[in-house]
Write a structure and sequence with these properties.
Elements (H helix, E strand, L loop, with lengths): L4 H12 L5 H18 L8 H14 L2 H20 L26 H9 L6 H16 L3 H5 L6 E2 L2 E5 L5 E5 L2 H14 L22 H12 L8 H14 L4 H8 L4 H10 L1 H11 L11
Amino acid sequence: MTLSTPAEEYLSWLAVERGRSRNTLVSYRRDLVAYEGFLRRSAAEAGPEDVAAWLAGLRAGHSAASVARALSVVRGLHRFMVDEGIAATDPTASSEAGRLPVRLPKALSEDQVGRLLDATAGDRPLDRRDRALLEVLYGTGGRVSEVVGLDLADLQGDMVRLYGKGAKERLVPLGRYAATALAEWLAVRFTPRTRRDAEAVFLNGHGSRLTRQGAYDVLRRRAVGTGVQVSPHALRHSCATHMLARGADIRVVQELLGHASITTTQLYTKVTAEHLRAAYESAHPRAGEHSVTG
């Protein structure tokens, strides 16, 4: 069975925006095929009664963990459709199942980020574009959809205006490296070959706005030979993790990433536990082998 267009777009979004692995996407696809097979139509047409009937059938023959996983996938699809304007309401809003364990974000090391950015060296227009794209993704912590959606009017000197979920906007700093890379790209952007989109900051090879999938392909191509496994969302995770590890206030990181809740940002503090332990052992007088014993 093939999936509806919204479901296919959701899986593509998970790959590009959320950095889900191939195996995870295969599992999600299986759940969505079963869901739309039960509905016998697109998930965009489902109502709360359809979700309730589907859940009842699952609970009759599956473990609580399996039900929770499947509901998580389906709920994610419906929330995606609401966010994208495909559907007006989320029919899973009142559905309940056991909670799945929180997945910790996967961040690159600073050395890995450096190797990835070094792979964009070159003076060709597309080299400059790729460098600017990766620097802006890492420098702002922006979602890939926010970054490829940038217009020239969104560039405010050393700040950039990003439009997040629900059309919420925020101003974030670019950073010196991102600002320099962006200026170098914009200097070659306005050639006759690249004037098809007068507003977009990031263009593809045909002069049209770069898409989410296009940005993902850029990153994947540049990662070849670096030994780095990466997705656009990993650069967002890395930005947050590295800032917190270097002492940034969590509220500042929350504002930078556009998280509605501090709880989401707090996930990144768990990623820096290794850094915390190393700092403790090097600084506390009774922590390591060179402890002061009095």
